[in-house]
Structures are given as C-alpha cells and as structure tokens.
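EI: anyone free to look at a 171-residue chain?
SC: sure, send it
EI:
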Amino acid sequence: WSTPDACAGRWTGVGCSSDGRRVTSLSLGSLDLRGSLDPLSHLTELRVLDLRGNRLNGTLDGLLLGVPNLKLLYLSRNDISGAVPDALARLPRLVRLDLADNSLRGPIPAAALANLTDLLTLRLQDNLLTGLLPDLATALPRLADFNASNTQLSGRVPDALRTKFGLASFA
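SC: here you go
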C-alpha cells in the first residue's frame, strides 16, 4: 500500500465501487492485524468485510452502526469481545455472518437476527455465549449453515434446529 488512496492505488485486499470512489470490500484475512474495528465504521458502502484470523479486539457496536450495506461479515478467529449486538438488525442485506472463535458473551439476540431474513450462514461457535438457544429456524427459513457449538448456551435444542442442523452444531 504505497499510495494514500486505497482505490486509486489498487491496494491488495481492497475492492472499490465501479467509479473508484468508495471502498466496497476488505479481504484481509490472517495478516496479524491488530486494533479495533471502529475505524472501519466510516466505510458506509462496505459490502464485504473479511478479517478472519487476525488479532482484532474491542466490540462490534461501533462498526455495525456505520456499515448498513454489509452482505458478508467474516470476523472469526479474532479477539472480539462484548455481546452479539442488537445493531445486527440494522444490516438487512446480511447473508453470511461468521463470528466464531472470539470472546463474545451474553445471549444470542434472537429479535435482532430475525430481521436478517436473507441470512444463509450464522457461525457463533467457540464463544462465551450464555442463555437459552433461540429457535431461529422459523425466523430465518433460509439459514443453511448454523453452528453454536462450544459455547455456554443452555437448555434444550429446539426441535426444528436439531432436525435441520444436527446435534454437532450445538455440542
């Protein structure tokens, strides 16, 4: 990255709009990146954010409030903390959400996720999530890939989820 303009400089891992003015994707996985996600919240045209396998920290709140057009969000294998935020409800175009292997705590926000009617992938495994496992099968009929294993969720696995994804997704 030798220029100050990501689009004009055609930076590796950075995708831009057809007019070259807006960053629309960041694919910077496994580069040992460190720091908070908040500075990315000004990328309002961002559609794809793939930062899996880095050392990013902080919470998701600030980021999610600034990227309403996001379709693909891959943040697995980082050190993101806090709750899975209700601000997810503001991302109605989201199709893939991978937050696996972080330090997320608290319940799965079923009401917020119910707004993501196009969601195909939801990966929450290997976090510190607690509470009951919500029945997302009805709210998210297109969901095809779901994993909430290796968490601290409790209670009975809803029948529809168990039938659709098998018990391995909840172990």
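EI: The chain has a mean pLDDT of 96.
SC: 👍
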